[in-house]
Amino acid sequence: MPIESKKNNKGQALITAIIFFLFISTTITLGVANPVLRQLNISNDLVRSKNSYFLSESLSEDLTYRLKTGKQVSASESLTLSGETATALVSDILGGKRIIATGNFSDATRKVQTDLIMGAGVSFSYGVQSGEGGMHIKNTALVSGNVFSNGPVTGENSNLIKGDVISAGPSGSIYKIHATSSAYAHTITDSQIDKNAYYQVISGTTVGGVSYPNSPDQATAALPISDAKITEWENEAALGGTVSCSGSTYNISGSVTIGPKKIPCDLRVDGSDSVTLTGPLWVTGKITVSNSATFRIHSSLGNRSVVVIADDPLNRITSSNIELQNTTSFYGTGQPGSYILFISANQSAEQGGNEEAIEVQNSAQGALLVYAGHGDINLKNSVKIKEVTAYKITLQNSAQVIYETGLANLLFTAGPGGGYTIDEWKETE
After folding, report:
1. What is the C-alpha to C-alpha distance for residues 122 and 128, in angstroms, rounded to an integer?
2. Can the peptide bond before residue 260 be classed as cis, meaning omega within 30 degrees of 0?
3. Distance between CA atoms of 253 and 268, rounded to whole angstroms?
4. DSSP 311
């Protein structure tokens, strides 16, 4: 073979080898690069998605903070960070606000929803709590729960307290009480205490546990709801508008859904009438609920409780009182922690008068709490409720207070002073 032909063949072989090598190299490179590129794209998408989420969450948190601190919030809001933007729509829901915030980062969008409920917490730590007016229990009345009083705790005729009994202060006194747990008072007289007794003076008393003479007096305690808090609830009710009264009375007829509302007169609910509460009521007169009438809280309020207030600022001596009687029934939403709290602003008892702030009688029952921080509450004739707090309290004639543990941490619909709390958060589409 000629020398030149051999040289040509060698050149062709070299070119072929180079092409083959380039082909193999390219194949290998593409085989490696494509997954890397895919992973890079995925990573970029993830970064954009996370940034979009952070944008939406930042705006949601900003609006939540502004609502909780009483700052101005519009129906439509926006936020720009590092050149990217989040937008939000703020709308009203029952009892609060809904924020839907959408983040957009390089065309990747994420959306979060935050529901805020206007609320304020109130704790009822005892089945019965009284002020200096004390508590009297008689005629087979029953308290299932602890009792705390800044005044004397006295009884007669087969009373029973299934829990501790505390009569606070240097004049604290427990007299003719049967308690299934322990007793705390400066003086304990003619009582049956199934567990321990803590006292300075004792006489005529059976103690089933250990006696602790010379025990320090228990400190007195403020009642759990301040006048300022009641005013906040009244203000919230008034924000919902004022009803028109017929004469001096607003009569509920049939089934009515109401709240928040101010009622500038007496309120009467009678017979088969039914009231569904969607917010607080403020009645500037007397409240009468009788003869199988019912109150309940709208199911949309979940685990919230609602207040019904009788308060005539011009007459807290002979008005601003409440009567609940004759097989009336009271219901929460059906969820744990939901109760109806009736509040009377009547101050007769604290001023030395005889006007009852609240009277509950004749088999009234249900998810019912009653409160009269300056007044007298009388429970009688087979009523069955969950908690009672007042300046002065009487239980008689088979009345029952059955305390539930959830009462120590209640959330009420509330006014501006109560502030917003987060009810629900979720990412949405």
Report:
1. 15
2. yes
3. 9
4. -
